[in-house]
Specification:
- The complex is a heterodimer of chains A (322) and B (510).
- Chain A has 322 residues and is mostly helical.
- Chain A is built from 14 helices and 2 strands; from the N terminus they run H-H-H-H-E-E-H-H-H-H-H-H-H-H-H-H.
- Chain A has a two-stranded antiparallel sheet with strand order 1-2.
- The longest helix of chain A has 36 residues.
- With 510 residues, chain B is an alpha+beta fold.
- About 3% of the residues of chain B have low confidence.
- The chains are: A mainly alpha (322), B alpha+beta (510).
- Chains A and B meet through helix 2, helix 3, helix 7 and helix 12 of A and strand 9, helix 3 and helix 10 of B.
Amino acid sequence: MIRYAARRLAFALFLVIAVSSASLLLSRLAPGDFVTETLGARASRQTVEEQRARFGLNRSFGAQYRDWLASAARLDFGYSMLYDRPVRDLIPERAANTAILALTALVCATLVGVPLGIVSGSRRGGALPGAIRAVSVVLLSMPPLLTSLFLVFAAARTGWLPIAGMRSATLPAGGAFLDLLRHLIVPAAAIALPLAAMLERLQSQAMGEVIAEPFVLASLARGVPRSRIVWHGALKAALRPVAAVYGLIIGSLLSGSFAVEVITAWPGLGSLMLQALRTRDVYLVAGCAGAGALFLAGGTLVSDLALAAIDPRASETRAEQA
Amino acid sequence: MSDPFNGLQAVQSAVRVDGKQINPNNVWFSKNFNTTTNQWNYYFNLFDANNTSGLAYTIVFGANPLPPVFGPLTDQILAAGQPFSLQVTATDPHTVVVTFPSPFAPGIRILNDLPILPRHKLEAALKAGTFRKAWGLDTPPALMAGLGPFLVSEYVPGQRVVFARNPSYFAKAPDGGALPYLDRLVVEIVPDQSAELLRLESGQLDMMTSEIAPDAYAPLKRAADQGRVTLLDLGVSRNADGLWFNLKPGALGGDPRAAWLQRDELRRAISMAVDRKLFADTVFFGAGVPVYGPETPGDKIWYWPGLPQTPHDTAAAKQLLASIGLTDRDGDGLLEDAQNRPVRFTLLTQKGRPNLERGAAVIRDELKKIGVVVDVVALDAGAVIDQLLHARYEAIYFNADKSDLDPGTNPDFWFSFGSAHVWNLEQASPATPWERQIDALMTRQIASPDEAERKSLYNDVQKIFSEYLPVVYFVAPRIYVAHSVRVTNLAPSEYRPQLLWRPDLVAVGR
């Protein structure tokens, strides 16, 4: 098991380095750079060269990459040209904002999607399971990008909710926490709705299969109440497929809520990376990509551990493979 | 001569070995940046017209009067020569002296770029040689000071800048009351203008920071008609996007198309072929006016209504192209050159700027009508500029906004050695007779103290420009801005940020 965990950690490290390096390489090799992007067409050649020298952009990619890698080994990921401060100072705050949004969405999606999946999967017919299924299919067919656009539009039209940002310019009467919650509703719902639909579908299918198992029939025959069977015995067995993808969902949520962040101006990693890409701030691009990869690797690890907790056979198989 | 004190001490006296005192006005300081050592080099310069026998000088430096302070003032080109650093000296606590080495008509206009900096906060950094890094984006706002109506009180990277009222602001309201009226000004950083518009319409934002895009006009007009926002028409923009070809001799290598791509007749034909009314309707949804030269009707001082206007005439355009050997030889409706190669070129423009992308599409479609094929390639701004700086392009449709109203402060665009002389950058000597003519006219225009003469000289420059069309302009857009109905007392300008031109006067209703 220790060897397995060590291998997973080594893979996570490799993923972060590979993704960061590829991002640095691609953003560096594309035509133009931070200096031409920000100085505009009227900057003199001399000014451009001065600024390139100031930011080290006049060096070869090999020299730049070598220095960056050596610094990264000391957890120094370079200096953001756009924000004039170290990348390692910018990433944690933005990563925390992304985590707040993603985890809120995940909790909401789980609290809504899993119970609804149990309800729709444990009943063969009826209006309620049908309605749940129909709504899920509609939501599943709408990616978070569209959902967020729709929600932002609705919030703007009604004026009920803030449509952008993470906190108000002036602190409202309810305090900072309430202000944060109000700002969370639109972006978190945009991510949570399709996610809840996905969890509902997964849980429903798993529950449907478990309900048809002989042990459920035997329990019913012994007079165990149906609700007890569904919410205790069957649920544990039916959680396995959901747990298997849960970690992946966490990882992809933390690294993939970028579109929603951009649309709702949520100050997370996504909007930071977009700014970095727009201005060709190569070290910041590499830092954001690395942080996204770290989330993904962490999520995969969590997924494996969760699966092992629910189904010990999974960890044994993995340990044997390791 | 190298300045031993790096600009930190004034010259007290400069005396020639035969006893002649050099006029203090003939001693000035300059600096240049050495890209190899990555450092500034400081010099002092001495002008002595009568020294023909190489006599030496004795220079005495001293800290009294106060040493000259070199602010980050943009180098200016005062005449047809090399850029010049100005000497800015604080001679006493209430006087700042800016010394011009030669007559410079725009004069104190350039001082709008000259920050007045607090000595108590920055002197140590100046002496330590770390002035350039003393105040940056990571400087805590409490360590900064300013003279404006607001002071930075918070900066959250990528999210917002908060400005708080400056209690020591010098200006007073007309009734003698204190300014500014607002206690706080929050500038939110939003991803794009669509997000900005939505927030404005939903009442979560009070004003926009720039002009609205043409396609946003209709929904904002509806919102304005319903009383939800206020829409202002600020008139015609002073800047228009332009098309130019790479006129650097030899830049197109052995490409045989260079024979016609760099011809004046091609640019004249393009100017004739593009229907400016159609351009305004398509690109700016009708909110634009035709432009035929470097100045637009939005500029009330330098625009010359007498400038010859190119008529929209496709037949004449075809005739012009035929005069340089570009005709339809195979009857397919497209032109070919003398070697029967298609008349086709690549037009670079900026990606993600709808006005530029739509404009490039109109140019492509209009030129197709006269048999010229245009391949439009949209790139990031940085990539377009990179191609421009390395002269690796055939044609560009882009915006090269003027940095100031006075043409005298845009020498980088006008002079052939200029860094923004976009069609052929930084020439060692004028590549064409008409550029030499413009250089000469602009040299006089910059130096002349007579405003009428300056206007007349600039009209001549515009006339030459419109004849040779190094940049072809089509339409200048109208500028619209929007703000919430609760904002009052605005003094808008056509320049960005249009609504915050006088932030000290802005007020909000309850």
